[in-house]
């Protein structure tokens, strides 16, 4: 890894050697770590004049190519190559932007000579427009173009890769066209296409083939557009899908495509085993159960193919050329045979007993070498238990013999015979139905007696089932893109080679349907394994010069297709592992020195063997059809997404595409999935969903500029522009939260994280959540602090499972910062309507906290936002706790019902779910008590909330002289404490000390001002009497006399304050009498009133909430947020 770190410093500032270990550790240094080194660098600047005078320092931490070759270090994969630029600015802050290859930074790797690095350094200062501005990090175009020319798209993993050994590069024909042709022209053309035509008929058979080919054609168009929209590194279709649909969808589809490619290898090898056992060497059936024979031969073929794959992609390519020549030659000979046999042929005959086909293959398997002629005498050996006793014969056989309907028929009738008219329509069968010319059904007893004498259907057939059977025949269009890492020009080779292969194979398949339907007897076509003709392959019999040429050629071609699948699938798995989206696959990142993903190859072989053991070809084809269709669906969806969003980066060279065609292809994929086999379709979807959720939960976060993110941006933009600003209807109102947080001074945690937990517990209402914090300072000097703070907030959100946003604002004044947040947070109609903050615990230490808190209340009121204040936030539960008890709402002032709504939402969370909701309201007349209670019960009932209702009566009262004087003492005491510069924390100790010191000063002859002496005496009398005889009426009178002697004024505002505190005390007593044991209490937050009374307001709240556990103070906007109407 090459890390070029450019450090730009102002004069008389340097970077000391203490920063070097930080940089050498990794390419992912955090801003917090770099900031921690700045103190040391500044300390060394004074002792190092030479360093202090340097303005630009280039650190190039490089390993030479010789050292890398010696240690065997591989070139890093593109997603992991990081370009790190560290810029030191004023205030010892650091800006550390990271860019990876996926974001556009192209690393030139190890192929650049040391001369280039020296040249880069020599021209470093000339990058700027002016000589004196040489600190810019810009790059000359010549250097940028050189990096592009040396860009290597190969992603190779592991420490065993030889950096001096370049992978084999292939062109369009060898790298794309041949693998696609070989996989598309696989085994199913020879062993299943004729049977599909005989069962579905020419019309529906042609439609089945056309639908399948249309799916792959539209996918090829979409694939060509995506492949030409930039470079395609290793990973092929997975890379294209993941970079266009995001890591979650890309990884999920990539896993499905890997399984499809691996299981397809088992399908091809089982097809080869079927050809070998049924048509090449029938004597190799060493087991009575044919499927056990398939398992044995398939495993042996897998072992042979695996050895070739392990030898490397070069050896596979050597085998690919002869195998593709064989498959193309076999298909060509089949079409030539159609024209040669246009008038029919007597070379192949099959036997008919009435309307049924006798199972001669079963006879020859049990009696090797003893062939039966198609006449009554020979067939008695098959249908009679005793050839001499007519009574032991099959009744249908005797009936056919009596009617003279036992006969031989030509399998190849030729196109001139008009047989296509008989084969035009479908003849679908159920399992165990006779292969016969009429539509009669077989009973269970008949099947037990005749299953070994007549040919019967081994599976049910229908139009949709046959689509699932045939669809794997047209797959393989992505085998070329699987090798994108080994292509010289992937963006050119993939569209040309893939489209050419798809069009040629589609034409061949459609012509094959017509050839088989127009030249062969329908009865013989429906005989899947040719049992009526001693196991003859229909496609081979039609071809020239000899059927065995086609049989051997199809056997080798099918095995070759399996080899191609086992070559591409491991590389796909390695590409997924190298991306890091699925952490559990990291084991498969390593490669051999030849670049072979050995571990991925071994696991692919194991999966292939598991599906070979299934042995039933039709089940395997139905399953892999779903996997391939999911992948094709994703390719089409990616093309639609990019085309519709019209992203600036969407500039494919391939012009012959349109989003509507890709949309049609995507819909066709979904339709074919559920038409062919809905159960397997659900299985594929479930596997994809599991992979998606796993990647979302455990996968590394990737930003690839994918289309899903673009779609979200487009949808968000559309929604925001259509979301009108203004009042929200009551039914749609939900708390959109702005949570004001305070980060610790060391930027390591959020103070009182319980406030964030409380916000997360309110999220039953969903809606917007913004965590915001205000830092005091200058933004340009606090970039690192902002980044660190936002990182901490995001980590807390992740831990609290909050889906929201984090904002950090730097302001010269905290109050002004709060004001900016309250005013500007949100966008358009998506703005916060509720602010959450904690009660300032240290408001008595000076006047700043009280003023800031009250000012925030005024700001939220002006912004028409509700305010939620959490008092004693440390006592609130975390998200892991569960509270059992009561949740009390003291509904004193009408606030639009926000307290009731928040209590309801809070109870939806598991933390508060087991609490009981109680609602209290206050009336001033005992006569209205019952009426208010009934009205409240009715209202809560119509709100559909489970809560109990109670009404508390608080009558008007007179303030006693004692309460009047006591309050005056408290107010004047606070004023004198302020004059003495004391705080409440010091009052119990420092007041007496101040008085005694002042008194001693007087006794020693020092003069005190009269006002100070008066204040001290008054404070002494008030304070002592307040603490000792607060409830004594005589003391109260003495205090009043003292006030009169010192002429302390009693103003109307003081009288009002006295009444307010008395009212708060009375309310607190009422609340404590009913909610002392409650686990949470909701209270109305009163209006703070005019300026200058901030500390009195704080004292008022303290009196009102004294002795209460977990208090939430709420100030609504007055707008209704709950409604009784539907």
Automatic annotation (TrEMBL):
Residues 175-347, 454-738 form the Amino acid permease/ SLC12A domain. InterPro entries: AA-permease/SLC12A_dom, SLC12_C, SLC12A_fam. GO terms for cellular component: plasma membrane; synapse. This is Solute carrier family 12 member 6. Residues 863-1126 form the SLC12A transporter C-terminal domain. Pfam families: AA_permease, SLC12. It comes from Trichinella nativa. GO terms for molecular function: potassium:chloride symporter activity. Keywords: Membrane, Transmembrane, Transmembrane helix. It is a multi-pass membrane protein. It is found in: Membrane. The chain crosses the membrane at residues 173-195, 207-232, 252-281, 293-313, 319-340, 454-474, 494-516, 600-617, 623-645, 666-692. GO terms for biological process: cell volume homeostasis; chemical synaptic transmission; chloride ion homeostasis; potassium ion homeostasis; potassium ion import across plasma membrane.
């Amino acid at each position: 890894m090459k890390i070029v770190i450019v450090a730009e410093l102002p004069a008389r500032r340097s970077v000391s050697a203490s920063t070097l270990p930080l940089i050498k550790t990794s390419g992912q240094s955090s801003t917090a770590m770099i900031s921690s080194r700045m103190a040391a660098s500044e300390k060394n600047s004074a002792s190092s004049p030479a360093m202090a005078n340097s303005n630009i320092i280039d650190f190039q931490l490089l390993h030479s190519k010789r050292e890398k070759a010696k240690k065997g270090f591989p070139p890093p994969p593109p997603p992991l190559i990081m370009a790190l630029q560290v810029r030191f600015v004023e205030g010892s802050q650091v800006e550390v932007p990271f860019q990876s290859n996926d974001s556009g930074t192209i690393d030139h790797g190890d192929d650049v000579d040391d001369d280039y690095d020296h040249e880069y350094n020599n021209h470093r200062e000339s990058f700027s427009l002016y000589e004196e501005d040489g600190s810019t990090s810009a790059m000359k175009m010549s250097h940028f173009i050189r990096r592009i020319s040396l860009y290597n798209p190969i992603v190779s993993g592991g420490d065993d890769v030889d950096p001096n050994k370049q992978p084999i590069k292939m062109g369009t024909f060898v790298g794309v066209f041949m693998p696609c042709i070989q996989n598309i022209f696989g085994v199913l053309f020879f062993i299943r296409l004729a049977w599909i035509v005989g069962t579905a008929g020419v019309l529906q058979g042609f439609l089945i083939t056309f639908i399948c080919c249309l799916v792959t054609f539209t996918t090829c168009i979409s694939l060509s557009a995506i492949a030409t929209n930039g470079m395609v590194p290793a990973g092929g279709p997975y890379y294209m899908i993941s970079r266009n649909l995001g890591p979650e969808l890309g990884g999920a589809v990539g896993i499905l495509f890997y399984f499809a490619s691996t299981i397809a290898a088992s399908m091809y090898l089982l097809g080869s085993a079927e050809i070998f056992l049924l048509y090449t060497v029938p004597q190799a059936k060493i087991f009575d159960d044919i499927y056990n024979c398939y398992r044995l031969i398939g495993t042996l073929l897998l072992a042979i193919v695996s050895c070739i794959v392990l030898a490397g992609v070069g050896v596979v390519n050597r085998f690919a050329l002869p195998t593709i020549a064989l498959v193309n030659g076999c298909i060509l000979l089949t079409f030539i045979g159609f024209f040669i046999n246009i008038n029919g042929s007597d070379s192949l005959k099959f036997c008919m007993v009435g309307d049924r086909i006798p199972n001669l293959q079963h006879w020859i398997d049990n009696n090797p070498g003893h062939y039966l002629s198609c006449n009554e005498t020979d067939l008695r050996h098959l249908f009679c238990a005793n050839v001499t006793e007519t009574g032991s014969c099959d009744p249908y056989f005797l009936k056919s013999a009596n009617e003279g309907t036992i006969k031989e028929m030509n399998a190849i009738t030729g196109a001139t015979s008009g047989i296509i008219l008989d084969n035009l329509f479908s003849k679908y069968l159920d399992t165990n139905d006779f292969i016969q010319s009429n539509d009669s059904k077989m009973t269970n007893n008949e099947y037990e007696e005749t299953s070994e004498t007549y040919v019967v259907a081994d599976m049910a057939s229908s139009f949709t089932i046959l689509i699932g059977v045939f669809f794997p025949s047209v797959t393989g269009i992505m085998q070329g893109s699987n090798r994108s890492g080994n292509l010289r020009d992937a963006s050119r080779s993939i569209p040309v080679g893939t489209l050419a292969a798809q069009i040629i194979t589609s034409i061949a398949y459609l012509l094959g349907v017509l050839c088989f339907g127009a030249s062969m007897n329908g009865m013989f076509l429906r005989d899947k394994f040719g049992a009526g003709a001693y196991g003859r392959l229909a496609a081979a019999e039609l071809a020239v010069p000899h059927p065995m040429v086609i049989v051997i050629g199809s056997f080798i071609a099918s095995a070759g297709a399996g080899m191609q699948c086992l070559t591409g699938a491991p590389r796909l798995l390695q590409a997924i592992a190298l991306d890091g989206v699925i952490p559990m696959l990291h084991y498969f990142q390593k490669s051999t020195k030849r670049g072979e993903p050995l571990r991925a190859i071994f696991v692919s072989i194991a999966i292939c063997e598991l599906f070979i053991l299934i042995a039933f070809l039709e089940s395997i084809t139905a399953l892999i059809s779903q996997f391939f269709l999911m992948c094709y669906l994703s390719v089409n969806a990616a093309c639609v997404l990019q085309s519709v969003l019209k992203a600036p980066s969407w500039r494919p060279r391939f012009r012959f595409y349109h989003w509507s065609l890709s949309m049609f292809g995507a819909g066709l994929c979904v339709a074919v999935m559920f038409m062919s086999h809905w159960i397997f379709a659900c299985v594929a979807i479930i596997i994809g969903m599991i992979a998606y959720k796993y990647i979302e939960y455990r996968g590394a976060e990737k930003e690839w500029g994918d289309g899903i993110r673009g779609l979200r941006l487009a949808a968000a933009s559309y929604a925001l522009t259509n979301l009108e600003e203004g009042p929200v209807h009551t039914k749609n109102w939900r708390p959109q939260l702005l949570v004001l947080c305070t980060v610790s001074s060391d930027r390591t945690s959020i103070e009182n994280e319980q406030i964030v937990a409380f916000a997360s517990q309110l999220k039953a209402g969903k809606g917007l959540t913004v965590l915001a914090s205000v830092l005091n300072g200058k933004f340009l000097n606090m970039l690192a602090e902002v980044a660190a703070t936002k990182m901490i907030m995001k980590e807390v959100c992740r831990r609290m499972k909050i889906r929201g946003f984090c904002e950090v604002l730097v302001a010269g004044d905290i109050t002004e910062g709060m004001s900016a947040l309250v005013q500007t947070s949100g966008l358009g109609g998506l703005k916060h309507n509720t602010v959450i903050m904690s009660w300032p615990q240290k408001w008595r230490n000076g006047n700043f906290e009280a003023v800031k808190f009250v000012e925030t209340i005024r700001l939220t009121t002006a912004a028409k936002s509700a305010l939620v204040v959490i008092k004693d936030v440390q006592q609130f539960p975390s998200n892991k706790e569960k509270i059992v008890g009561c949740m009390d709402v003291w509904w004193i002032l009408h606030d639009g019902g926000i307290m009731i709504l928040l209590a309801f939402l809070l109870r939806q969370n598991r933390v508060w779910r087991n609490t009981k909701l109680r609602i209290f309201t206050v009336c001033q007349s005992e006569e209205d008590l019952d009426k208010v209670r009934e009205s409240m019960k009715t209202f809560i009932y119509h709100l559909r909330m489970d809560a109990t209702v109670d009404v508390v009566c608080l009558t008007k009262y007179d303030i006693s002289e004692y309460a009047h004087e006591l309050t005056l003492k408290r107010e004047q005491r606070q004023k004198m404490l302020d004059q003495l510069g004391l705080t409440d924390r010091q009052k119990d100790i420092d007041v007496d000390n101040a008085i005694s010191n002042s008194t001693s000063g007087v006794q020693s002859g020092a003069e005190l001002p009269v006002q100070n002496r008066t204040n001290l005496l008054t404070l002494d009398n008030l304070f002592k009497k307040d603490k000792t005889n607060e409830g004594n009426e005589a003391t109260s009178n003495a205090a009043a006399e003292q006030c009169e002697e010192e002429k302390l004024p009693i103003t109307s505002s003081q009288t009002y304050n006295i009444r307010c505190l008395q009212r708060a005390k009375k309310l607190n007593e009422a609340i404590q009498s009913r909610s002392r044991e409650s686990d949470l209490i909701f209270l109305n937050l009163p209006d703070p009133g005019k300026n200058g009374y901030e500390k009195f307001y704080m004292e008022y709240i303290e009196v009102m909430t004294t002795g209460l556990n977990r208090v939430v103070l709420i100030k609504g906007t007055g707008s209704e947020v709950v409604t009784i109407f539907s």
